[in-house]
């Protein structure tokens, strides 16, 4: 039995992780309607792995499309895949993560039971570079707050209607970092119907030293700010200025990350700019120092200082 879900996976030089990801898709109790694999200028054997898997899955009746996108970046590759989607729902997935056998089935059944839903989400398990794990939470209630501070709408946590992605403007290919964070803001500004799947996580994400986000913030300084600036513009355009203090806190947290990584000048410059732009400089400064010192749970403090 198949679902009304298409899985889109961008691939860039992931020959070392791609077999695990594709094997997890092939083990689904309920297969997706289609899997679209988009190569993004890989120089390793990723293309050979994808084409071989396509032939293997054809024997099981699963349609696998292998295509390519030369414009650099995962967002451009995802948009190429999105342009080929014909199902009601789309699941964007990464080429270094894995889904448990129940994953597609659970989302398909939840969406069939809630046909008005435009976003469905569930917690994920995140495997870190040191071998430890932590849970990434999805929250349908107060979704905007939880997304701004905890990335609740990140790629691996959700399935969305294809119509919603196209309506809000697809992926922003100009962004090299936090492109799913920025798209998540646009999803939520569209006020979609959201459902929260219960139960244990059905996706395991694997941190990679060479992944898009890397293991630090300083290495991509300026790119994070670009994503936040785009979010700020979208929020203002939507007339949701009450959300700006939360986003200003995210700028302050980023500045604290720079400071704690030893990048004092970027930290100082970003903090000064944020404090000059925000209508709440004292509270934002307090939240900056909270994150610089404690390095966690600043979202709780922000909820107290900006409770709306």
Question: So, CATH architecture of the largest domain?
Answer: Alpha-Beta Complex
Order of H and E elements: EHEHEHEEHEEEHEHHEEHHHHH
Helicity range of the residues? Answer: 40-55%
| Percentage of β-strand residues | 15-25%
Count of discrete domains: 2
Strand order of the largest sheet: 3-2-1-4-9-6-10
What is the total tally of β strands? 11
Distance from N terminus to C terminus (CA atoms, Å) equals 45 Å
- Averaging pLDDT over every residue, what do you get? 96
Morphology: globular
- Give me the oligomer status: single chain
Structure class? alpha/beta
What is the CATH topology descriptor of the largest domain? Spore Coat Polysaccharide Biosynthesis Protein SpsA, Chain A
